[in-house]
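Question (not urgent): is this output format expected?
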Amino acid sequence: MSSIKIGFENPENPDLAALHDARIAFNFEGYDPADCFTPPVSALAAPDMRFRVARLDGVVTGMAALRLDDGWGEIKAVFIDPAARGCGVARALMEHLENVALAEEVRLLRLETGNLHTDAIEFYSRLGWVQIPRFDPYPENDTSLYYEKALS
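Got this back:
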């Protein structure tokens, strides 16, 4: 049986470079760069971010971050290595970030994703996320979808 471990790692760790490159390429694929809001690696190290890495049997397979805002949090930079999809890594990362949010006394989470990321859209819906109108700081565009989840 596979073992998923999630924890903090410095986002600028060279061991994560290939996954960051894949994340950025995936998020830009099919989109006008002006409509792509994936954060650069340096932003994931900001004080308001809670960056986490998932390892499956010791191998880096996923990443995600929680950005803290005024009274709510935003899920950012969710990416799972395609070879590890379907193994529970994304669910484990999202549940972990929900627990981080609760520990930070955050009860409302939001996220932005692209309309071409149909697998992610279905996944978020299965986890109880609901589609909402655009929220700041995102500009109006034709490709972004916005979701929210209340935590209890």
